[in-house]
Amino acid sequence: MITFENDYSCGAHPAVLQRLIETNLIPQPGYGFDTFSESAREKIRAACGCPGAEVYFLSGGTQTNAVVLASILKPWEGVIAAQTGHIHVHEAGAPEALGAKVLALPEHEGKLNPAEIRALASALLKDENVEHMVYPGAVYISHPTEWGTLYTRRELEAISAVCREFGMRLYLDGARLAYGLAARDTDVDLPLIASLCDAFYIGGTKCGALCGEAVVFPRRTPAHFVNFIKKHGALMAKGRLCGVQFDALFTDGLYFALGKQGVETAETLKTILAKHGIPCYMDTPTNQQFAIMENQRYNAIRERVPVGFWSNPDPAHTIVRFATAWYTTEEYLTELDTALG
Amino acid sequence: MITFENDYSCGAHPAVLQRLIETNLIPQPGYGFDTFSESAREKIRAACGCPGAEVYFLSGGTQTNAVVLASILKPWEGVIAAQTGHIHVHEAGAPEALGAKVLALPEHEGKLNPAEIRALASALLKDENVEHMVYPGAVYISHPTEWGTLYTRRELEAISAVCREFGMRLYLDGARLAYGLAARDTDVDLPLIASLCDAFYIGGTKCGALCGEAVVFPRRTPAHFVNFIKKHGALMAKGRLCGVQFDALFTDGLYFALGKQGVETAETLKTILAKHGIPCYMDTPTNQQFAIMENQRYNAIRERVPVGFWSNPDPAHTIVRFATAWYTTEEYLTELDTALG
Amino acid sequence: MITFENDYSCGAHPAVLQRLIETNLIPQPGYGFDTFSESAREKIRAACGCPGAEVYFLSGGTQTNAVVLASILKPWEGVIAAQTGHIHVHEAGAPEALGAKVLALPEHEGKLNPAEIRALASALLKDENVEHMVYPGAVYISHPTEWGTLYTRRELEAISAVCREFGMRLYLDGARLAYGLAARDTDVDLPLIASLCDAFYIGGTKCGALCGEAVVFPRRTPAHFVNFIKKHGALMAKGRLCGVQFDALFTDGLYFALGKQGVETAETLKTILAKHGIPCYMDTPTNQQFAIMENQRYNAIRERVPVGFWSNPDPAHTIVRFATAWYTTEEYLTELDTALG
Amino acid sequence: MITFENDYSCGAHPAVLQRLIETNLIPQPGYGFDTFSESAREKIRAACGCPGAEVYFLSGGTQTNAVVLASILKPWEGVIAAQTGHIHVHEAGAPEALGAKVLALPEHEGKLNPAEIRALASALLKDENVEHMVYPGAVYISHPTEWGTLYTRRELEAISAVCREFGMRLYLDGARLAYGLAARDTDVDLPLIASLCDAFYIGGTKCGALCGEAVVFPRRTPAHFVNFIKKHGALMAKGRLCGVQFDALFTDGLYFALGKQGVETAETLKTILAKHGIPCYMDTPTNQQFAIMENQRYNAIRERVPVGFWSNPDPAHTIVRFATAWYTTEEYLTELDTALG
């Protein structure tokens, strides 16, 4: 059985699972006060080059976005995001459920443009009716984006500079960060992210763990962040579950190796698609590839190869997402090649 | 290393972990559409004697309470709970964060009294200013309660009848349900709970799983419940994580066996406490025992045996919680005996 | 002293004030149960040709929008509005504070396009991930719009049809409705609005009253609407204050006469602007006129004539809002003419 | 026609209405930037002996409580109030709708006890699980209370001291403050309240105005308070409406004179009740009197004299509220005397 439907189709990377097995019956305090979580935090701090960072583990991405935004936004503030941003489109209004309006800007291959952020923040803050409006309190970016694209160092620096200029916090959603860090030509690494963002999360669920995301506050942690976690139902009694997994992921570079596996299989996948004359919707350097397929071909293949429906750019074609991951093997790719043949 | 600090100190029961290992690399759809979740749902329906029930898996208890309450309450309604109810005291205001006021009633060994529920509901609904007040929309009970006590069949029937009389929904928090079902003289079982409650959850985190609670709607599921789950950040991408675990827990009666282990070790624990002249604060038939210890003794023992601080009934004494669980072995009890000696 | 800054610069129309004086010391029940409110409701029902309508009085527009939206939206729904919609831009995130996401669409001279509403609703409801998204539950339109423009009967019918097709409610914000109803070539009247909308409000604050808006539910009132009003702090103890005023406004066609005064003075104002070579940003049939002025001229005039700053279309020009109202007299217009000369 | 049903049965005091008439057609900026509001603010600052205070006008009490609490509480905090507190019982869950849990304490003739506040705050803040709980962020008191009783200077000082000790803000709901300040033996005046509270409001609706409450922040105003007002739909376009009224109320001591009228008529009312052998439920020094009447007598009188039903202490008796106000004349009292005869 193979799949390209998404990047959360299998359980945990075997090394992560092995660590859960080994530690299973060692009693530990709850709520993240266990030694495994502490060890994981220490390793993440090191990987970020940020000895003073605070790290928290939550179980999923939407939850993480909601809790972090609730904690970094003031009641009068909203968050700037791309039209395609996950928080704007695919989180069922979770930020708004906590009272935070999403201030949407156009997307450019999934990315925000620094000049457009500046223009919006500037217009809002200069408006003499600003007290009647939602203040721009934070900027949300995803890296990789929902289109699998990546910001460059220069772009992140520019966005971070705009944030500092207007007193906005910069928050990076790293649900698929492993694949972003492993991309071939990227000049963005964890220490850079830690130096430019006020908060970000290192995705576990889509990058080798059963569940779990690691929230990093490189400098200043919002007051009473644990209370925010608890209040939003996101405090795990067995905090060890995430701690153990992230401890394994950040041992011997496993997290980065898993990212590499996802990216390299995506490169091969691109070659296979090209070989079969299937164009990509956009050039994407990470583990998600968006192919434009004739409907007939799409319908034929999806019986044998689970893929993700994205949209219909015109009545005759479908944009299809092929996602690779740490568990995508040679066999997966060979079968796809055969299926397309 | 031993502990009586709580009932979530270890990982998963080995049989649960084994199932995670076996299924780890079998690709499955996300968000609970996997075959393991479906199998678990089927087994839970059978155990509840409720073939038409809908079952959902969430990762933790506070989250589950918040999501279920948000979905079963109308905007003008609140929820009746005991002063000691977990939602009233220990969830950081999570129900209120979703706009649901907790209408607190006195507790009787952790339990609500049906007559007091009726009096409150009746007073509110007869008040000519009721539109200025919070309507009683649901009753929250925990079983076992926060004091480890249990409702009887007769008590549950009486509360359920009051709920029906006033159009309120009955919701049961079963964080420790395994231990409640396994108590020696209880006449409450899963089919009874399913027949009397509008919603309840079968606790996994404290009863053998790494994480996860199974929400059961025996009859009518709230409209768009999945949207509520997603909106509150509680929809797991890898729904299989809970599905696999609950499938294991409800195979060959494991869930009930784990409950029995917790209750039997608690019985032995009571004997040990009695032998050492330590009285219990209340007679409790489940896995939590609340002992009254002189402060000196408490301070001496907690170095060797992790226990839970509860409160100080007077300056010289401490109420201490001893929690057993599926992982509490003979060795734990022997060491406690020695430590108290 | 004159002003064109906005349409809420003076107190109440003298006939409205007179009615407050006459009724001042007649004791009445609170919360809208007074006879004046009842009389006003009856007159509004008649004016709407809707004997079965329910009518409620709230004190201001943002509040009214928030309370009505909270009551007509389900927890999983959001509201479609134009990018320029008051609820999207100038209500400080009030809908989101109640958990309701605004789903923004492009504006066309302040108006929504029925085809674009259909496309959005259709795309959302057909999406297989719709449970991860915000459902389209209602459409918000303002009439007149924020640009002072008006929907035609045909446009309203088309939007209403889309709403019925997708089970969405149609809500009309009539903050300046008097001026809309009095426009020269409009084919939209109160009975039409009542027949097409599920909820709307007849603005008082900007149309002759000291404060107050009349919410009309032509057919079905949301359950426990009074509780929504109270919960959002919008239930006036002295409901008579709004009741008396709306009773006066809907006696002998006063409301319509005031609208006519605002529109006719706006027509004269347009002539004056044209005479002085000042173009309008768009052709607007109601009481708000948006003029494009050279910055120098704008700066010169605003010392003598208070007007509203709108935006800078380019560095050398300013869009300026001139608002007329029921209190705009000949004298106002003459002085403006002089000031521009 | 007479009434004792409540203290908001008539319109505005004639002097207040007169001021509305005089200022009606003088154009002014909106949103409280008018000269009348500024004048009123200045007079209130003087009456409070607090030249640096900030003053805001909102239209009603429930709204004011919600907006102030939202602005002074942090997201992890709740508010301590008496079981009988208006925010806890009669505001339809408005604080909770903004996410603020009410932490209820026993009432003592409607009042909070400083020692009980200290015990609760201390217990919460010392609890090692405090991050799982709602922090005590503010104390809500009403003065007069819902039972018409008053705090003494000493009691207010003690509560204020507890607040300072635990970093809680003290907020006073003065819906009926005029009657509290005018009570015979009170040692509490506006400067004292301003010196002890972090926020309070001077009630207008029940003390001579058509609507309106004046929020006073004697020292530090919450950041972006206007945005809170707007976001909660409480910013009046015609801020002048409240400004003019409070300007009149604080001219020549009118506010205090109205309070005196209410209190003196209440004293006479007490005499009349006593003369007719009707006991009071509690000794109350302000404008609300709670009488214990046999049901038969209550039913007989309420046809002729509107009064407020409160509760049934036993099946044969009713507690009835008689409210006097600035509009209660000799005639009202004479008719009551006759009706009881």
Structure in a nutshell:
With 341 residues, chain A is of the alpha/beta class.
Can you tag this structure with a few keywords?
alpha/beta; 341 residues; three-stranded antiparallel β-sheet; Aspartate Aminotransferase, domain 2; seven-stranded mixed β-sheet; 14 helices; homotetramer; Aspartate Aminotransferase, domain 1
Number of strands of chain A: 10
CATH topology of the largest domain in chain A: Aspartate Aminotransferase, domain 2
**CATH architecture annotation name of the largest domain in chain A:** 3-Layer(aba) Sandwich
Strand fraction of chain A equals 15-25%
Structural class by SSE content of chain A: alpha/beta
Query: What's the structural domain tally of chain A?
Result: 2
Average pLDDT level of chain A: 97
Number of helices of chain A: 14
Q: Largest sheet of chain A at a glance? A: 7 strands, mixed
Query: What multimeric state do the chains show?
Result: homotetramer
Q: Greatest interface and its residue counts? A: A-B, 55 and 56 residues
N-to-C series of helices and strands of chain A: HHEHEHHEHEHEHHEEHHHEHEEH
Instruction: Please identify which CATH superfamily of the largest domain in chain A we are dealing with.
Output: Type I PLP-dependent aspartate aminotransferase-like (Major domain)
